[in-house]
Amino acid sequence: MARAPTSRNATKRSPSNHPSSTQSDTYRGNAGELQQQAGGKHPVLTTQQGIPVADNQNSLRPSPRGPTLLEDFILREKITHFDHERIPERIVHARGSGAHGFFELTHSLRDVTTARVLTEVGVQTPVFTRFSTVAGGAGSVDTPRDVRGFAVKFYTPEGNWDLVGNNIPVFFIQDAMKFPDLVHAVKMEPDRGFPQAGSAHDTFWDFVSLMPETLHMVMWAMSDRTLPRSLRMMEGFGVHSFRLVNADGDSTFVKFHWRPKLGIQSTVWDEALKLQAADNDFHRRDLFESIEAGDFPEWELAVQLFTEEEAENFPFDHLDPTKLVPEELVPLQVIGRMVLNRWPDNFFAETEQVAFCPTNVPPGIDFSNDPLLQGRLFSYLDTQLSRLGGPNFAQIPINAPKCPFHNMQRDGQMQMQVPKGRVSYEPSSLQPDTPRASQAQGFRHFAQVDDGKGQGKGKGRIRPESFADHYSQARMFFRSQSPLEQSHIASALVFELSKVGTPHVREAVVGHLVHVDPALAERVAAGLGLPQVPAAPSAAEPVRDLPLSPQLRIIDRMKPTLQGRCIGILVADGSNGDTVTTLRKALEKVGATVKIVSPRVGGAKLRDGTLLAAHGQLAGTPSTVFDAVVSVLTSEMGEQLSREAAAVDWFRDAFGHLKAIAAGKGSQALLSAAGIEPDAGVVDPANVQGFIAAAQTRQWAREPKLRNLA
Ligand code: HDE
Fold it and tell me: Which residues line ligand 1 (CB under 6 A)?
C-alpha cells in the first residue's frame, strides 16, 4: 500500500524542500467546482480528466524505498504530457517575439481595392505581430547580424490577412526553387552543427559566391539594417508586389511598407556582439517592457501603388524579388497605423503557435506572379501541417479568424468543433442553413491574361530575361549610403569573409563586389589581406548606374528623440541624490526610460543617507543595454570603481558605441581608466540640456577615431 511520507519528515523539514501529502487538502463539490478548504483561493489541482490530485510531490510506491508503480496514472499523465510539450520549431524564423494590437486605417484605398481592412477609415482591426531572426534556433540570441521577420496577422471582417514580411525590402533569391538551398547554406553546417544564428561561415558565402542574384540583399544584410536597436525601431516590407483589386475587377500593384514611429535605428557592430552576452533577450525584453509601461510600439503602414503600364517603364522587373521600387520613383502613401498594446498571455499558445500563411488574403488583395511569392503560397500551409500537427491548426485561438467561418471541412486530428446536422457536403437540399459560395462576397482571383513574354517556347523551367541584372540595384543601394554606412558595409564584409576558411570563396565574393563598386571591392580585398582584387566574373547584363536613393540610408534618418530610448545612471554609495533626481526627471519628461545601475542591486546609500534602489547590478547591466549613460559618483567611489573591469568597460563601451556620456568630476578616474578623451558627446551631469541633445543621437564623428573601418 502506498503511504505518504511520515509526519516526522513533514514536521522536520519545510514543505518546500520535502513536501508531504500529510498537508493534503480536502475537497467538496464535484470536480468542476472544486474548492480547497484550506486557503480557499487556489483551484484544486486535477489531472487532464478532472480527477482531483491529492499529492503533487510523491509518486506511487509499494513502500517508501520501493519502485514506482505503473498504476500511478497521475505520474504517467504528467510525465507523458511533459514529454510531448515541444513542437517542431520553425525551419526559419524560429526565434521570435510577438504582441497583440490593432491596425487603424487613416486613408481609404476604396478606389483600388474592395478589402474592407483597407477601405474603412477609423475601424480598428485586431492584429497579432511576430518579429523574428531568420537563421537561429528558437533559443538563440536576439541580436546576431541577421534579417528580421516582420509578420502581421490582421483579423479582418473578411477573414485573416497575413502580411508576412521582413525588415529588408528585397530577398536573396529570385525563385522558390532555391529557398531550401539558401536556408541550408545559411543555417549551421550539417556536419559540425555550427555556427548558430550567423551567416559568417563558409557555406553561406559559398552559396553567395555562386548565386550573384543574392548580391543586392547581401548589401542590405551587411548594412546596419541587420543590427536593429529595437524591434520598435525597424522598418518592415511586404517585399513582393501584391495586387489590389477593386469592385470593377481592376488591378493595381502594391508594395507594403511599415515605418516605425520612433524612427529607424541600429546598433553598431561591436555593440551588437556584446549585446549577445549582455542580454540574450534584448529585443524581446525591450518589446515586453515598452508594452508593459504603456509606451506602445507603433508603425505607419504605407503603400506604393503602380499600374501594370507604369511597371513596364521601370528600369527593372518588379516581379523580381531581388529588386525594390525606390521611393523616389514611386512615393509612399501612408494609409494607416499599427499599435502593439498587449503582450501575449502565453508564449507557446500564441507566439509559438501562430501560423502565418501568405495565402491568407481577403477579397480585394491578390498575388503577383513574383516566382518567390508563388512558391511561398505553397510552403507555409505545408509547413504548418507538420509544425502544428494536422489540418485543424486554424482552430487554435491565435490562428482562428475573428469573423464567422463555415465550411464542409470535417474531422482530422485535434478537431475542436462539433458540427451539427447530417449535411457535410455541398450542394445539398436537406439542410437549409449549410454554407454556400457567394459570387458577390467571395474571393475572386484577378483575371490576369498571361502576357506570354519570354514564354514563346511554351512550358518550361524559365527565368525571365528581365531578371538577369543582379548588380545594378546592389550598386544603387551601396552608393546611396552615407560614407560611414558604406564603411560599415565594407567592415561587415571583411568580418564575415574573415570567418570563411576557404580562400577561393572569399576571393569569389570579392570578385562580385567589383561589379557592385570597384572601390568597395578594393577595401574588402585590403581588409582580407588579398594580394590583389580578384577579377570580376562575367555579368549577364552590363551594370547600370541607377539614380541614387538617399531614403535607403539609416544614420541620417535616425529620429532626434529620447522617446523609446533608455538611459542608465550609475550611482554608488555617497552619490548626490539631487543630481540624480534632476536628471531623471528631465530625461523622463522628454520620454526616456531611466534605469539606475549600482555596484549592488540593493541600491546605493546616497549622500543624504537615503537608499536608492537599483534596476540592475553593475556587472550584469553593461552600458550596451542603454542608449546613453550618466554617472553620478563621488571621487572616492570613482577611484574605487576604476579598478573594476565591469565599471571601466561600462564607460569604454558607452564611448566606443558612440553614446553620449554625462560624467562629473567624481567619474574622472573611470574615464581615464577607460582611455576616454572627452569630446562633444561627453558632458557634465549638471548640463542636463546638453546631455539630452547629445543623447538624442549617436556621436558619429567619434567613430573614425576609434576603430579602423574597412
Ligand atoms: Fe518565409 N517561411 N519563405 N519568407 N518567412 C517561413 O513558415 C519560405 C520568405 C518569413 O513569424 C516558414 O511558419 C519559402 C520571404 C517570415 O511565424 C516556411 C520562401 C519573406 C517568417 C517559410 C520564403 C519571408 C517565415 C517557416 C521562398 C519576406 C516567420 C515556418 C519561396 C517577405 C513567420 C513557417 C512567423 C517563415 C518558407 C521566403 C518571411 C518554411 C519557401 C521572401 C517573417 O514556410
Answer: 90-93, 96, 130, 132, 149, 151, 164-166, 171, 176, 179, 239, 354, 356, 372, 375-376, 379-380, 383-384
CA atoms within 13 A on the CB side of 386: 8
Distance, CA of 618 to CA of 632 (rounded, Å):
14
pLDDT for res 545: 97
Cβ–Cβ under 8 Å, residues 588 and 604:
no
What ligand 1 atom has the least distance to the C-alpha of 92? 26
Q: Give me the phi and psi of 487, to 5 degrees please.
A: -65, -35
245 bridge partner residues: 251
pLDDT in tens, 453-494: 655 567 889 999 999 999 999 999 999 999 999 999 999 999
Residue having the nearest C-alpha atom to atom 42 of ligand 1: 171
- What is the Cα–Cα distance from 460 to 409, expressed in whole angstroms? 35
Q: Which of ligand 1's atoms lies nearest the C-alpha of 378? A: 41
Choosing from 87, 89, 92 the residue with most ligand 1 atoms within 8 A of its CB, the one to mutate for a pocket test is: 92
Choose one of 127, 182, 374, 376 to mutate for the ligand 1 pocket test, by most ligand atoms within 8 angstroms of C-beta: 376
Ligand 1 geometric centre to CA of 149 (Å): 8
Q: Whose CA is nearest to atom 19 of ligand 1?
A: 376
Sequence-distant (6+) residues with CB within 8 A of 348 are none
In this structure, which amino acid lies at residue 407? N
- Tell me which residue has cell 499599435: 339
Task: Provide DSSP, 416-467.
Answer: -----SS--SSS-SS-TTS----TTTS-----PPP--TT-TT-SSS---GGG
**Cross-strand pairs, 299:** 260, 338
Structure-block grid coordinates of residue 104:
487603424
Respond yes or no on whether the N-terminal peptide bond of residue 427 is cis (omega within 30° of 0): yes
194 Cα: distance to centroid of ligand 1 (angstroms): 22
How far is Cα 693 from Cα 475, in angstroms, rounded to an integer? 35
Cell of 28: 467538496
Amino acid sitting at position 223: S
Dump strand ranges (E) for 33-95: 35-36
Tell me the per-residue pLDDT of 190-206, one tens digit each, with 9 for 90 and over.
Answer: 999 999 999 999 999 99
Q: Ligand 1 pocket test: which of 340, 356, 378 has the largest number of ligand atoms within 8 Å of its C-beta?
A: 356
This prediction has a pTM of 0.94
Distance, in Å, from the CA atom of 683 to the CA atom of 497, rounded to the nearest integer, reads 39
Cα of 92 from ligand 1 centre, angstroms: 7
Q: Which residues are marked as active site?
A: 93, 166
Number of other residues whose CB lies within 10 A of the CB of residue 437: 8
